[in-house]
Design a protein that fits this description.
Shape: elongated
Strand content: 35-45%
Radius of gyration: 40 Å
Number of helices: 10
Number of strands: 24
Structural class: alpha+beta
Helix content: 10-25%
């Protein structure tokens, strides 16, 4: 690649050699140190590339070998400049463009946010704007460390941030906390089995009414048994482990964060309904278009999507001018289209209603399965009325039970000491 650039800057000529001694011509050029490349046979002749300096040394070789040389083409920067030597405005414009590109390269023209799920790009861009980080700011004023610190401070659930500059592009990568731990778990992240302070004792309580089908404690004291009916809010595993003396009397408590695998059987209600009719759009063959060219804060608009349609939808796209992958420019092209339509009311068939409601119920069951919920009995049925169709019923399921809450501390019994006479 570098060699091609050098040859283009110096300029080269494409020549065609004819005659009976073309081999002698090639050998003589090699002996003289004249560089030839791109050798190609063409109609009992040869075509090749040669440097301008080498072409000027061919006259004695041509006379000696009896060959004929014809110039096929001239290539490279010297020939390009010579061809357009009278077009001064063209070269002035080219130099001005280079100077403008160099000037624009010293500013940020695109802020790209990656990895965000809970927060939209617009939300994060508005926050960055409040901290004076915007498009059009000088690259020298961008403090990536401060941007990282500000985002981490403002959004607690963003656990990792990276900011970097590539070309005229500011790239901000974030990673959000995707853990679904209970809120009390986040406040008290001590590992299970470790003794806690009194005010940090944690119990596992039932988060719904159910019948306990499995309980495997790892830390804490189980307060229920398998087969027992429990109510929401009832303590399942206590984080307060009693300390007994030799006589079996409670003399204190050790405080832990309760930990256990608990499963319960319960029933949940399912209901989903849809209307018997739906709207279908019949599009017209006409549409209104609007084109916008934005350069910084200035714009040029052609056409308009303003209309008197009763019902219409608008769609379009916007594209920012970019050289390569990271050299964005403050030039943006937008196109918007307004297309009218006539809304038509149509009615689902019975099979379509069943298919839609069945697919929705299957997605619901898959979501339950991802949460570790096992369906053991299904009593959901589809009913069709005069205005709507619905799928409703109850599901009997085996589901993980329990949530962590701060323990209500138990009082330690007071033991009264007796004297030796027993009084």
């Amino acid at each position: 690649m570098l060699l091609k650039i050098i040859r283009y800057i110096k300029g080269y000529i494409r020549i065609r050699i004819t005659g009976y001694s073309t081999e002698r011509f090639l050998n003589a050029c090699s002996h003289k140190g004249i560089v030839l490349w791109g050798l190609t046979p063409v109609n009992r002749a040869y075509e090749m590339n040669i440097q301008v300096k080498g072409f000027r040394q061919l006259k004695p070789i041509i006379r000696k070998t009896g060959t004929k040389v014809v110039i096929v083409g001239r290539f490279g920067l010297p020939f390009f400049l010579h061809k357009y030597r009278k077009r001064k405005l063209f070269f002035a414009g080219a130099l001005l463009s280079l100077a403008l590109v160099f000037l624009l390269s010293r500013y940020i023209w695109n802020i790209d946010i990656q990895g965000n799920l809970s927060y939209t790009d617009e939300t994060l861009l508005r926050f960055l704007e409040s901290t004076q980080v915007t498009n059009g700011m000088p690259v020298s004023e961008v403090d990536c460390a401060r941007i990282v610190k500000d985002i981490r401070k403002e959004y607690n659930d963003i656990i990792w941030v990276s900011a970097s500059i590539k070309g005229t592009r500011l790239i901000i990568q974030v990673k959000e906390n995707e853990d679904s731990l209970p809120a009390m778990d986040e406040v008290n992240p001590e590992p299970a089995g470790e003794q806690l302070q009194e005010d940090k004792a944690m119990d596992i309580v039932a988060d719904q009414d159910c019948i306990i089908t499995k309980i495997v404690p790892r830390n804490g004291i189980p307060m229920v048994k398998e087969g027992q009916q429990v109510k929401a809010g009832e303590i399942l595993v206590s984080g307060q482990v009693p300390v007994l003396d030799d006589s079996g009397t409670v003399i204190g408590y050790q405080y832990h964060k309760a930990d256990a695998d608990i499963q319960g059987r319960t029933s949940i209600e399912y209901q989903n309904e849809i209307s018997l009719t739906y709207e279908e759009k019949e599009y017209a063959d006409i549409e209104k278009k609007e084109y916008t060219l934005k350069i910084g804060s200035y714009y040029l608009r052609l056409g308009s999507i303003r209309n008197s349609y009763e019902a219409w939808e608008m769609y379009g796209f916007a594209k920012q001018l970019c050289i390569g992958d990271n050299f964005y420019l403050p030039i943006c092209y937008e196109k918007r289209i307004a297309k009218p339509y006539r809304p038509l009311e149509k009615k689902y068939t019975k099979n379509e209603l069943q298919r839609i409601l069945s697919k929705s119920f299957q997605r619901y069951c898959k979501d339950l399965d991802k949460k570790g919920v096992e369906i053991i009995e299904n009593n959901v049925k589809i009913y069709t009325g005069s205005e709507k169709a619905e799928a409703k019923g109850r599901l009997t399921v085996l589901t993980p039970i329990g949530t962590l809450t701060q323990s209500q501390l138990l009082e330690i019994p007071v033991i009264e000491e007796q004297d030796e006479t027993g009084e």
